[in-house]
Amino acid sequence: MKTIFAFMSLLLCFKHVQASHNPILTEQQLIEILIHPDRFKQDAMRDPDRLPNKVMTFAGIAKGDKVLDLYAGGGWYSELFSMAVGPKGNVFAQNDHLTWRFGEKEITERTQNNRLPNLIRLDQTAIADIEIPNHSLDMAFMAMNYHDLFFTHRQRNGEMQVLRPEIVDYKTAFTVVQQALKPDGVLIIIDHTAQPGSGYSAANDLHRIDPNIVKHQLTDVGFVLLEEAFYLRNPKDDLNTLVFDPSIRGKTDRFIYKFGMPISDKNKTDQ
After folding, report:
1. What is the pTM of this model?
2. What CATH number labels 2-270?
3. Phi then psi dihedrals of residue 131, to 5 deg
């Protein structure tokens, strides 16, 4: 069974590469973007912890691609994708009411004066309300934010602050994402690892998520897990520490998954 799964994963990945209209950018080309003088000046400070050249190589970004950056926050990755896809591509930087609350200042500064002309902001827009034409996206990307689907409250100064009235319906949200992706499109998920079986409590208490929840939910929607990358794994992270704690911030154990479209949808394009 493992052999069959591995073969299918390789086959689906091969189809994604072959179907791309433009060559996938090499890691060296992506490194050149990281050191470009026009890049938002403070962004490079996070490169050693995030390894964006390796992450985007794994994602398979190409010139001319159309990318949806889910829960983009301040737009750190949105800018890199904007530079990578070039003037013939587009990046949709989406934030709902919660993530906009934390990212508004930075993404507003980042995009002022039409600084990233191929970037389209979807401000205070729920994932379920995204209006992007069906089968138009090459990639959807979500970095360190899947847990925010279930981030509903926090403790501040001894008081409980309610941030969402309820958790986000992952089925509705990612069905919209799935419909927007091309048959050979991919969904990349990166997040801070939580203890197995920790449920949604880790999202509120630690800003982490059990990777099994991500795999189960996206498979439930119909996505196919193609690959996993291990660039950001850290076995020394005990998984019980808040990700903002100085002892682990920027060094958490993070999983990176690449999901593809349902095989049935791919078959439709082959007939």
Report:
1. 0.89
2. 3.40.50.150
3. -115, 90
